[in-house]
Amino acid sequence: MKDLFITKNKSIKQALRQISKTGKKCLIVVDRKNKLLGTLSDGDIRKTIVKGKNLDNSIDDVFFKNPIFLTSGKFFEKEAKELLVNKRLDIIPVIDHSKKIVDVIYFEKYFGN
């Protein structure tokens, strides 16, 4: 799970490497205490590159700062499945009451590749 975490001060190039390494299409942007700040998809990065941003630029201006998430103990599996399908998500962060990431729900868990 922590291999999906990235901090907002990392470069676009570092994020691309991490996405390639994990094989996922999305990373979770966290602070130093693993609290949710947002998400960063490969699509977000592609759009940024097309706009002419340098790969050495920080992801701070690139990542999505209002991500969809679920709160631990306050959702049902059916709700997670519906979010994954209806919002076309690859992952959903699960947070505790202090916004710390405690789990990640993967599309593949319910629907395969």
3D architecture notes:
- This protein is an alpha/beta fold.
- The protein has helices at residues 12-22, 42-50, 77-86, 107-111, and strands spanning 5-7, 26-30, 36-41, 70-71, 91-95, 101-106.
- It is 31% helix and 24% strand.
- The strands form two sheets. It has a three-stranded mixed sheet with strand order 1-2-3.
- A hairpin with a 5-residue loop joins strand 5 (91-95) and strand 6.
- The chain is globular.
- The two termini are 18 Å apart.
Distance between the termini: 18 Å
What amount of the residues lies in strands? 15-25%
Low-confidence stretches: none
- Class by alpha and beta content: alpha/beta
Radius of gyration: 14 Å
Strand count? 6
What's the main sheet like? Answer: 3 strands, mixed
Shape: globular
How is the largest sheet built, in terms of strand order? 1-2-3
Helix content: 25-40%
Number of helices: 4
The oligomeric state is: single chain
Walk me through the topology:
Elements: E1 5-7, H1 12-22, E2 26-30, E3 36-41, H2 42-50, E4 70-71, H3 77-86, E5 91-95, E6 101-106, H4 107-111
Parallel strand pairs: 1-2, 4-5
Antiparallel strand pairs: 2-3, 5-6
